[in-house]
Amino acid sequence: MKDSETPQPLITLSHVSMGWEGVNILEDISLSVNSGDFLAITGPNGGGKTTLLRILLGLLKPVRGTVTRHDPAMRIGYLPQKNKIDSHFPVTVTDVIHSGLLAVKGLNNDERERRFRETIAMMGLEEHAGKPIGQLSGGQLQRALLGRAIIAGPQLLVLDEPLSYIDKRFEARLYELISELARTTTIVLVSHEMSAISGMANRHFIVDHCLHECTARHHGVHVDCDDD
After folding, report:
1. DSSP-assigned states of every residue in 35-82
2. Is the CB of residue 105 less than 8 Å from the CB of residue 41?
3. Whether the Cβ atoms of residue 29 and residue 65 lie closer than 8 Å to each other
4. How many CA atoms lie within 13 A of 134 on its CB side?
């Protein structure tokens, strides 16, 4: 995003809190995800990172506060953590990637097939197209899920631990893909491994039940909810 441009909000969280059975997971979170942003989010296990993403996606409703999606028709791509996926479900790599187009209207069969071919090649999974996902390695399944997330050309791409299980041979390519996508797509990314990815982001956050926007030098430093 150019400095002269006025940020256009896509999703706004205002004083959002979330918890279960009296335990606070997130407390008084306010955040605006703007068009053109690349948000990098880190924090300790159990600090609420995935819960925050699920609220942004509309998969969870907060117990307090408001969530505003400024364009209800906005296309969102989501890469969940691999361990949230039932790898025994009887679907193939082709099924998984194609499913990213289910909600997209107005595409003819030729266009759907063109997007599929481009995406599966981008993920390096052509030789595994017909395999059930239960026969894939963790890295291969992660790539299939990433293909599903990007095939529709989302306006907002949400990535939860995208480096998990990725094999080293594909890791460098993943960095290239994310860098390419960031030119045209708003990205919200959660990862414990921020060394390479954080350099692409224009905004950095630590989530430890509260939310703190910080500069790169703060990464790895504990931030209390009272910090400004």
Report:
1. TT-EEEEE--TTSSHHHHHHHHTTSS--SEEEEEES-TT--EEEE--G
2. no
3. yes
4. 5
Query: Are 35 and 14 a contacting pair, CB within 8 Å?
Result: no
- Is 157:11 a contact under the CB 8 Å cutoff? no
Q: How many CA atoms lie within 13 A of 47 on its CB side?
A: 21
Chain position carrying tokens 């955040």:
31
Rounded CA separation 85/91 (Å): 12
Q: For residue 211, give both structure tokens.
A: 């939310």
Q: What angle do CA 65, 219, 138 make, to 5 degrees?
A: 85
Q: Give the β-pairing of 156-160 and 76-79.
A: parallel
State the Cα–Cα distance between residues 52 and 46, nearest whole angstrom: 11
pLDDT tens profile 114-162: 999 999 999 999 999 999 999 999 889 999 999 999 999 999 999 998 8
Q: What is d(CA 93, CA 97) in angstroms, rounded to the nearest whole number? A: 6
- In the chain, the amino acid numbered 175 is Y
Residue 121 belongs to what H/E stretch? helix 109-122
DSSP class of 6 = P
Query: 221 pLDDT exceeds 80?
Result: no
